[in-house]
Write a structure and sequence with these properties.
The complex is a heterodimer of chains A (225) and B (625). In chain A, 78% of the residues lie in helices and 0% in strands. Chain A is an all-alpha fold. Classes of the chains: A mainly alpha (225), B alpha+beta (625). Chain B: It comes from Simiduia aestuariiviva. Chain B: One of its GO terms (cellular component) is plasma membrane.
């Protein structure tokens, strides 16, 4: 619309343009707006669902931080809430956390098989690396406790261990201890020590203790210095 | 051009354009133009999120407040500097941002309602136990947030906390892990040990002069003495000047008189009244008569006020009106009050408010401090203020003199002061004034050290300055052999003794390995021997080096094993491990078991949490500006 056209001419041009393109423009606008609103509604729904999960999760953590040893009633409440979270919000981290929580309760009740089932489910659901590493390490411990050392070793034999390499190596060592293979266990514990950051003295002490129990005088070289 | 655009913008075309422009606002809202910390710079980028300089500044100042609160004045100033705090604070912010991102990826969130409930119930925003919107706004703004920004910050804090809390609350310890832990930590061992003492060996070794000399030559770098200077420091400070100033009694007295002028001399009176308001004088007089009769009848002022006073505000408090120093109430009132003695009440007095019967409740006659009481303080204050003046004059002269000459004693004499001699000190500082880094720096500056000038005036604190002059320069050198010979001899003796001891230890060990009886072998050589049973790895009755060696050993096929350890005093211990008993989970009491479970779970969860966060960080793209 150049400046030298009169208003009449401009209007005329606009009308012509509208007659040519009006219909498709309206259709496009309706589609666009409709799609946007639909997307918004879907997002709102997802958000509302996540908010609900959040509030249930808060309830759980509040119950659990109340005391070191939960009463039977509280344990049952936590289990109930966690089952609900897992069933309804499996696609969020809340669902994964709920499964980990149920696994913890199962371990404490001595039901290792059901702990394993919960952690396997969590492992399948966990989307991000650090969560799945965490779940995998815990699952391996449950397997070792069940006497399934071989399965645990297969589980932790993964290429990319991220920042969990020391924890993986430690549970590997535990598995070899269960298999009474001291040489391999020592190797694994050594790897666990090597993967530690320098300032983690408490953990280093623990692993060294395990290492010394399978390999005599391993730590004396450092002490001589 | 804009003008013609505006002129043309009428009618249908204009409508169309306006509609077009309004579309984005319908969907994204006007506030999208104004939100965000657009002005403040970036401190770091964490994946696609930005940590702003603003956030970082807030975090630094928060950290500083916390440190100050915890350690008070014990912290050196540069501990709290921005440079010191910046790194850790930024690290914290980045970690927090990573947690928020992890939480969001897992679709963790919090509803507006829950967020509001949290804010409303925070004690910090409450006045008298109830949420106060004004206080909330004030607090939030004083922290440097907008209300929306603050809510967003809290929202992020909560989901970040949920994210890591999940790791902690779901942590567990399997029975297998616990059993292994108990087996090792509660394990006990039985062992023989023979002590080969250092002292007797030490007295038998000889170190020749040639050996000392050779060691000295080979280890010159160990005997380096850094460059040092001896200096004279001339300090000028207000306190010293003040100490020399004589203040006469006349001056004190004059100042005392001056001070007393500003004292409040008017006594302070506490007044109470009974007010009578009436339509007309007759009614008033009748009521006043009733009041007076009651008072004369012995009824207390308080009771009469409560019963008859028309002043609703004071009658239940005995008519109490509070304090006056003579100008609070109307003149008639004050005059009547001033005439009373404590406890007395007045005849009726009329003011604009009505008729009063006034009681003097209490009289507080301000007592002037005496000259004797005030004199010491006045003396100090006068001396200080004169000293301040002289300090400024003296400082000017010091600057000038110190610039014009290199003779610090001459400068001191001109100013009537004495320069202090400071014994030699290195760049890492010395005793007294040489402990001050500014003095050290000045002494080692080129024109002071090399050219022998007096340093520029250093401000040590607001009431003290100093200049420095180097009197002697000791270049870096190697200490002469004579000074260090004893030290070297001791060191070499110890080395030799240790070697002898090691030999003795080896001999002892091979005897024991060959199956010799420990007692017999030890006694034959005159060494002490002992047997210890059921010792745990953290038993503090034993030398830690000894225990560490004992627990490093393993029994091979149930056969004894041997080892050695040096104690802190240099003694050598030769040991024979004869028994290992693993800790037994079943033998623990319920209490001990629970304590171990908590400790182990805590250790496991800490390790998991650290790995969890480190992994998150390792996979992130972080840019620091």
């Amino acid at each position: 619309m150049s400046a030298h056209l009169t208003e009449e001419e401009q209007l005329e041009a606009l009308k012509r343009w509208w007659a040519e393109n009006g219909k498709s423009l309206i259709v496009a606008a309706i589609l666009g707006v409709g799609g946007y609103m639909g997307f918004n509604a879907w997002q709102d729904d997802r958000q509302a669902s996540a908010e609900m999960a959040s509030s249930k999760f808060e309830d759980i953590t509040e119950l659990m931080s109340k005391q070191e040893q939960l009463s039977e009633a509280d344990t049952a409440t936590v289990a109930h809430l966690a089952k609900g979270l897992k069933a309804d919000h499996g696609d969020t981290l809340y669902g994964v956390n709920a499964a980990m929580l149920l696994a913890k309760q199962a371990v404490e009740a001595g039901e290792l098989a059901s702990a394993e089932a919960e952690l396997r489910w969590a492992l399948e659901q966990s989307g991000s690396d650090n969560v799945s590493h965490l779940v995998r390490v815990r699952l391996a411990r449950v397997l070792v406790a069940q006497g399934k050392a071989e399965e645990a070793l297969t589980l932790v034999a993964i290429e990319d261990q991220g920042a969990f390499s020391s924890l993986y190596a430690e549970v590997k060592g535990d598995a070899y201890v269960a298999k009474k293979d001291n040489a391999k266990a020592a190797e694994a514990y050594q790897a666990a020590l090597a993967g530690l950051s320098g300032n983690d003295m408490a953990r280093a002490g623990q692993i060294r203790m395990k290492l010394n129990s399978v390999q005599p005088a391993a730590a004396t070289e450092e002490k001589g210095a | 051009m804009l003008q013609s655009f505006r002129d043309n913008l009428k009618g249908t075309v204009a409508m169309f354009l306006v509609l077009l422009i309004s579309v984005p606002f319908i969907f994204f809202g006007v506030d999208s133009l104004f939100t965000g910390d657009a002005q403040s710079g970036k401190a770091a980028e964490v994946n696609d999120d930005i940590v702003t300089e603003n956030q970082l500044r807030r975090a630094i100042s928060l950290q500083r407040d916390q440190l100050t609160q915890r350690f008070g004045d014990q912290l050196p100033v540069d501990f709290l500097s921005d440079e010191r705090l910046r790194g850790p604070a930024l690290d914290n912010l980045i970690n927090r941002q990573l947690r928020v991102q992890g939480a969001k990826a897992g679709r963790m969130t919090i509803s507006d309602k829950a967020l509001d409930e949290l804010i409303v119930s925070a004690p910090g925003f409450q006045v008298d136990g109830k949420f106060d919107a004004q206080r909330f706004t004030y607090m939030v703004q004083s922290m440097g947030y907008t209300l929306a920004g603050y809510r967003e910050m809290i929202r992020q804090e909560i989901i970040a906390a949920q994210y890591t809390q999940a790791v902690a609350v779901t942590g567990f310890v399997t029975e297998e892990q616990l059993a292994q832990y108990v087996r090792l930590t509660e394990q006990t061992r039985d062992f023989y040990w023979v002590t080969l003492p250092m002292a007797p060996v030490l007295s038998t070794v000889n170190v020749s002069d040639a050996e000392v000399e050779a060691f000295y030559q080979e280890n010159q770098q160990n005997f380096q003495v850094p460059e040092r200077v001896a200096a004279k420091v001339l300090e000028l400070n207000v306190a010293d000047i003040a100490a020399d100033i004589e203040i006469t009694d006349e001056q004190v007295a004059a100042q005392y008189a001056e001070n007393m002028k500003s004292y409040e001399t008017e006594p302070v009176r506490q007044a109470a009244h009974i007010l009578v308001e009436a339509e007309d004088d007759a009614a008033a007089q009748a009521k006043l008569a009733e009041v007076q009769a009651a008072l004369q009848g012995g009824e207390s002022f308080t009771d009469v006020a409560a019963r008859l006073s028309d002043d609703l505000g004071t009658r239940d408090a005995g008519g109490d009106l509070g304090f006056t120093s003579g100008d609070t109430f109307p003149e008639e009132f004050e005059t009547a009050l001033a005439a009373l003695e404590v406890g007395q009440y007045s005849e009726p007095v009329k003011t604009d408010a009505g008729w009063h019967i006034i009681q003097l409740v209490a009289l507080d006659q301000a007592e002037l401090p005496t000259l004797a009481e005030e004199a010491p303080m006045i003396r100090v204050a006068l001396a200080e203020s004169q000293a301040q003046q002289r300090f400024v004059e003296a400082l000017e002269r010091l600057k000038e003199e110190a610039y014009n000459t290199d003779d610090i004693d001459a400068v001191a004499q001109t100013l009537g002061l004495q320069a202090q001699a400071i014994p030699a000190f290195s760049r890492s500082g010395g005793a007294g004034l040489a402990a001050d880094p500014r003095v050290v720096e000045a002494a080692f500056a080129a024109d002071v050290l090399k050219d022998g000038h007096i340093s520029p005036v250093l401000e040590l604190n607001e009431s003290s300055v100093a200049v420095v002059k180097v009197t002697q320069h000791f270049p870096a050198e190697v200490k002469p052999l004579a000074d260090v010979a004893d030290l070297i001899t001791a060191q070499l003796s110890e080395q030799k003794a240790k070697a002898v001891l090691a030999e003795q230890g080896e001999a002892m060990l091979s005897e024991m390995r060959a199956g010799a009886d420990v007692e017999a072998a030890a006694t034959a050589k005159g060494f002490d021997w002992q047997i210890s049973r059921d010792v745990k790895r953290n038993d503090d009755r034993y030398d830690p080096q000894l225990l560490s060696s004992v627990f490093d050993l393993m029994l091979r096929d149930e056969q004894p094993n041997f080892g050695q350890a040096y104690t802190e005093d240099g003694d050598l211990i030769v040991l024979k491990l004869v028994g290992v008993k693993d800790g037994d989970l079943a033998a623990l009491t319920e209490e001990a078991r629970n304590a171990l479970v908590s400790r182990l779970r805590y250790e496991i969860v800490s390790a998991e949490m650290a790995a969890f966060e480190a992994d998150l960080k390792a996979g992130a793209e972080i840019k620091i500006y």
